[in-house]
Amino acid sequence: MNGDGSIVLRIGHLPTARLSKLVSVCPDDTLTRAETLLTRYKYSQLPVLADRASLIGAVTLESIALVRIAGQELTLASATRPVQEVSVDAEVRKVLPLLRQHRFAIVRDESGMISGIVTLADLVDAMEDRTGPHAILGEIERRLRKILEQACPTVEDLQAATGKTGIRSVRDLTLFDVEQVFGRANVWTGLHWRLDQSIFVAELRAVRKIRNKFAHYHDDEPRPLPEPELAQLTGFLDWLAELAPQR
Q1: Are strands 104-108 and 85-87 parallel, antiparallel or unpaired?
Q2: Which of 33, 69, 74, 99 could cross-link to 29 by cystine, CB 3.0-4.6 Å?
Q3: Alpha carbons 207 and 237: distance in angstroms, whole number
């Protein structure tokens, strides 16, 4: 976790960075063995290891194809290529440029052992898991504030609705403040929504609790939201879009 409390996504957080069974080949293996493992496990690449601490390189479907095209002797050595290596402690955002260029990298753990392999797709999926809920929550808050701009058009209206004299715009509101404002009878009446106010506020409260839970993990282990909570957010966002489609 950063000093500001934000979560840092590291290579070690990716499932393929610490494999209980690392499928690999050793320098004395045949190319046939490598191809058999690649097809059996539907991999695109395998590390070539002298032992768990000694990385020789990697053999890939592409490197094998290039050896065949070039008419070279078909051996594991001829199909082995240099490979990029990353630490389990490396930040994903810093490794992303390397993965964009090389598409995969071999992972070395804290003890110096080769522990896994990560691909560009692994990084993209992990980042989407983390940024997806952020994007949904950001859009929910943006829409809620836009609605309140219409319901409380002046600073005085906003201060009266929140009871906070220091508020200068809807951007100063926390999500808790937003929930409280939607709970005000006069603000609700001004929206002209034919909805049960208590249901809307309860839904908004549930969103706020999910947001707080998501934003304040007590460790630095990034994780996607559980499906029910993600469904709650997306459903509420869809509802807002229907209630105020032009906002």
Answers
A1: parallel
A2: 33
A3: 10
